[in-house]
Design brief:
- There is one protein chain.
- This protein has about 375 residues and is mostly beta strands.
- The protein has one domain (about 5-384): Beta Barrel (Lipocalin), CATH 2.40.128.
- Helix content is about 10%, strand content about 45%.
- The protein has five helices and 17 strands.
- Strands 7-8-9-10-11-12-13-15-16-17 form a ten-stranded antiparallel β-barrel. It has a two-stranded antiparallel sheet with strand order 1-2.
Length: about 375
């Protein structure tokens, strides 16, 4: 393992291994993530197609879910009725492995009125409560009319993030100190067990205290024995719709902060030899570094996007006027390792890459500049 991924060995994880797989076998071998299409090899557990129904559970499991009816209970890891959400229940933590970049409106004394803020952070992510067999009522088309109900399974989550270190350019005096609370989010993950369209079987509902309400929809997949070197895509954190995209141009006022942090990546409080730091030009690089050397048995992939189908973001008026959050794309990789904890259970590691597009400042090209607000983290499950 590299010096960075070896940090993951600090925490023991417990997970159940005695629950049978209830997800449907594969019929479509493509996973979509923020970097595009993933190679089809070894993707499993997709949708069962029939003329009347698209099911994401085996028929017997679907029938059992419907027969018991709606119920709310504490979530149990690897409950087969959670489908692709089954690895999530429990508490996940990271200490200093989270990184964030965001451009913000700022009354800069010279140059365009924005600053680029980078954060290193700690995170606790908890999945606690399941609501099963939530019925969405419907009827069939044509005659005779019949009941056509969709059943969803939802999983509550709460995310809390505290700053470890921060830096910004231009210097604002506003970056904040260590232990500052910088994010809190409550929400639900949804698993749509049947009547799915275009294989869209998962969703994420998020409520953010800034004044954002988010619905993102997407797909799930499982990769058996993945190659860690191909799991995490490379993405760009550079703004879109700027008049000059040459980051090496010393007169490029829009990319000057990015250039500085690209040449001297932000390392927060990390002083490990060889640690490259967080680079806003390649913000997913530290995810790839963290997964390097891990022996992964399987990876569950959840990819959601607010531009899919009827999804979207609603913001309060001040946000719409100042820095409008227009799109959110997120990919979660949940790794089960070929490594056991002290209790003899597989260790579990969760990684995510999230990009929220913020639109502000008029562009000489017309319209507004789009600024990627990208967060990444590598967490480990500490309680089942």
């Amino acid at each position: 393992m590299t010096c960075f991924s070896s940090f993951l060995s600090r925490v023991d994880v417990q997970a159940r291994t005695d629950v049978p797989n209830a997800l449907a076998p594969s019929s479509k071998l493509i996973a979509v993530h923020s970097g595009g299409a993933m190679p089809a090899a070894r993707l499993v557990r997709k949708v069962i197609q029939t003329e009347e129904l698209q099911m994401k559970l085996h028929p017997q499991m679907q029938q059992a879910l419907a027969s018991v009816g709606r119920r709310v209970a504490p979530a149990v890891a690897l409950d087969p009725q959670l489908g692709p959400l089954a690895p999530l229940p429990g508490t996940w933590k990271s200490a200093g492995l989270g990184w964030n970049m965001i451009a913000l409106p700022f009354a800069a004394p010279a140059g365009p009125p924005f600053r680029l803020l980078l954060n290193q952070f700690d995170e606790t992510l908890v999945f606690t409560l399941v609501d099963k067999a939530v019925p969405n009522r419907g009827i069939t088309e044509g005659t005779p009319v019949a009941e056509k109900d969709q059943l969803t399974v939802t999983l509550d989550y709460e995310q809390v993030i505290h700053q470890v270190a921060a830096a910004d350019l231009p210097l604002s005096g506003l970056a904040g100190s260590a232990n500052l609370a910088i994010h809190h989010e409550a929400g639900l993950w949804l698993f749509m067990t049947n009547h799915v369209d275009d294989d869209i079987d998962v969703g994420r509902l998020a409520t953010v205290p800034h004044g954002n309400s988010v619905l993102a929809l997407g797909t799930s997949d499982v990769v058996e024995s993945p190659d860690p070197g191909t799991l995490i895509p490379q993405v760009s954190g550079l703004p879109i719709n700027i008049p000059n995209t040459d980051i090496d141009d010393p007169n490029n006022r829009y990319l000057a902060p990015y250039k500085t942090f690209h040449d001297q990546p932000f390392k927060g409080v990390v002083n490990a030899p060889g640690f490259p730091g967080f680079d806003p030009v390649d913000p997913s690089a530290l995810l790839r570094l963290a997964v390097n050397g891990l022996d992964i048995a399987r990876t569950t992939i959840l990819h959601v996007d607010t531009t899919t189908q009827s999804a979207g973001i609603h913001n309060i008026p001040f946000i719409e006027r100042q820095a409008d959050a227009r799109r959110m794309v997120a990919t979660f990789w949940i790794h089960e390792l070929n490594e056991l904890d002290a209790a003899g259970n597989p260790r579990m590691v969760l990684q995510y890459l999230q990009d929220v597009s913020l639109d502000f400042l008029s562009s000489p090209n017309g319209g507004l500049i789009r600024w990627p607000h990208i967060s990444i983290n590598t967490l480990e499950k500490v309680t089942p």
